[in-house]
Design a protein that fits this description.
alpha+beta
Amino acid sequence: MTARIRVEIEDDEDGAETRSLARWLTRDSSITPRAGVALDQADGVDDMGGVIEVISLVVSSAIGLGSLVVSVASWRDSRPKPGRVRFRLPDGSLVEVVEDGEAVIHDLAAAVGVLGGGDAPDRP
């Protein structure tokens, strides 16, 4: 079973951070075999009327989802002022990456059920 996950970066008015993350994910050899990565347009427009870009990924396994989380965390660590990264899951729910990587990994592990996995462990 596959799932489409959208990755959004908050307050990325010119789309530079979104494009940077898309390049990062495309070049990550642990991601590309497990997840199709594409730059896409968001469903809406921003306050100034411009189209907001998002990254659209097709993930087909828990391993692909785990690789995605690790890669996004690594990308955030490389940024001078990392913004919030949001994962929009197939059911429409959002998981935000702010500071606490362990909590984010747990929240995204809960999404493994979307990919045919089991239940996520209890949150610490």
